[in-house]
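Sorry, explain these tokens?

___
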Amino acid sequence: MKRDYYDVLGVNKDASKDEINRAYRRLAKQYHPDVSSEKDAEEKFKEVQEAYDTLGDDEKRANYDRFGHESPFGNGGFGGQGFGGFEGFGGFSDIFSSFFGGGSQRVNPNAPRKGHDYERNITIDFLEAVLGTNKTLKVEVEENCHTCGGTGGKTKSDVETCDRCKGQGFVTVEQRTILGSMRTQQVCSKCNGKGKTIKNKCMSCNGSGRQKTTKEVKVKIPAGIDNNMSLRMAGYGEGGINGGPAGDLYLRFKVRPHKVFNRSGDNILLEVPISFTQAALGDQIEVPTIYGDVKLKIPQGTQSGTILRMRDRGVMNVNTGRKGDQLVTVNIETPKNLTKAQIDALKAFDALESKETPWEKFKNMFKS
């Protein structure tokens, strides 16, 4: 049984003419055999065309709303066979006018076309991302058959211009309807819109002219790459059609976390433990950075949680080339398992301290 025409176009029964036109153009573009890769695209296109033939005409729509598919005016009344099925009234003129800006002009089936773009996810280590690296990848793409060069024929002489459509990929058909004689265009049934026929098919690709192949891609990953950034590799996508250029390969990156370093934008974050003595007296220590160990001065009297900035020791920005900083958080570690000498030394130090401890100063703030 036929589907309801309103359901076919995806509109409500009270839809305006503009809504019907927009729905038709969207679906016609989606399912048109020349642009759609879906297996049942032609059948869906016919269904959409038939629904539009009826709902796009006020009189036919009124009759359809009243009688449904059981037309009292014959098959022609509601866009059946009398209107050519696949093409129908107002079909290709509207479609190609919208898609290609040329009235009812169709796209040359043998014109060069760019191959599809591919996207691939790639995971790299933290240091590879911040410092840059080189990788060699293998990608599987579809391109012209290496045996026939994309013609699909066993030899060049096996590929001929279709004698039915003269290489255009479509034929013009004149039909008699209740509105009079109408000329419409239909996909050539002999060559299926390709404009060419093959006498003897290539054994490698079985006449398709295409085959899968594995390519080796050498990638220079720039310093500063971060999660979800993409890198375009021109020409490493699907091979072009009819001599058109190849598509592109887009690499989307995922970065593994580092066990020590963290990243915030172009800055590197690092936590470093220091002793009580180093914090109190100050010191100069060697701190790891993504570029190697670098000396860092610990000022006298440094408090736990203090952040010290190491300029230009961060990540190079992929766009500006400027480096961020490394931000070092120092954490003072309290010693455990003290020896008697250490305990005596700390007690002597405490005796020299102010009688009011930091904790007592804090409590006295609330008393005042």
